[in-house]
Amino acid sequence: MSARRMLIAGNWKMNGLCADGLALAKDITARAAAGAPRCDLLVCPPATLLCSVGEAIAGSAVALGGQDCAAAEKGAFTGDVSAEMLKDAGCAYVILGHSERRQMHAESDAQVRDKVAAAWRAGLVAILCVGETRAEREAGQEQAVCCSQLSGSLPDGADAARLVIAYEPVWAIGTGLTPTLADITDIHRAIRAAIPAGTRILYGGSVNPRNAAEILALNEVDGALVGGASLKGEDFWAIAEACG
Ligand code: PGA
């Protein structure tokens, strides 16, 4: 296992109304209080729940993050949320360049890079997502794709204190499929060669309580970005418990 402290991050995506989001946040906070987590814990609820979840986890070992931010600080950007607003709502992190944003909102590397710069401007840690599609993997291009996304999406001035990379193969997200452990190691090594020393690299894509221990035991893996399994306190906590 890596010497870096692991980060287990829950990406709730567009899930959760007030009552169930709050119940989930309280459940995770209670487990963290009782169980002395061996990793850093993060929940990234939808924007509507940031303030209430932030209040529910205040003073606990669980940090708060957004799922996206705008590049601009403020202004006429209907529907957008700025990095400064996330910070103001209590966030320490923001997920950027998730494949669902890259695909469904056609976000380019250049746009993602501007958002990462905005996160840093606001004092947030950027969790920058990269990952190949199934077709790209079948063509043997996974490393080239991830490295190209990285070089296009990472602004100058990156440092390990304010950057986390999440390797998320698109074909593994929400499908129950995962790359082999050797494949995860290979890609994480290629990514590590392109980023500042000490930067945490998370694996994401169908992480669950059954496969977490073997993935998190890989030297190259510094934690997990968890989607579906982060919506159940019990499962999210089981993944956190799999950290060494
Ligand atoms: P999943 O999602 O764990 O449901 O595959 C991961 C993610 O998209 O961040």
Rg over CA atoms: 17 Å
Helix and strand composition category = alpha/beta
Tertiary shape: globular
Number of alpha- plus pi-helical segments: 10
H/E element sequence:
EHEHEHEHHEHHEHEHEH
Distance linking N and C termini: 7 Å
Tell me about the largest β-sheet: 8 strands, parallel, barrel
Low-confidence stretches: none
Helix content: 25-40%
Quaternary state reads single chain
What attributes characterize this protein structure?
39% helix; 8 strands; 8-stranded parallel barrel; 244 residues; 16% strand; 10 helices; alpha/beta
Walk me through what this model shows.
There is one protein chain. With 244 residues, the protein is an alpha/beta fold. Helices cover 39% and strands 16% of the residues. It has ten helices and eight strands. Helix 1 packs parallel to helix 2, helix 1 (18-35) packs parallel to helix 10 and helix 7 (142-153) runs parallel beside helix 8 (181-192). The protein is globular. The mean pLDDT is 97. The structure holds 2-phosphoglycolic acid (PGA). 2-phosphoglycolic acid is lined by residues 11, 168, 173-174, 204-207, 225-229. 2-phosphoglycolic acid binds at residues 11, 168, 173-174, 204-207, 225-229.
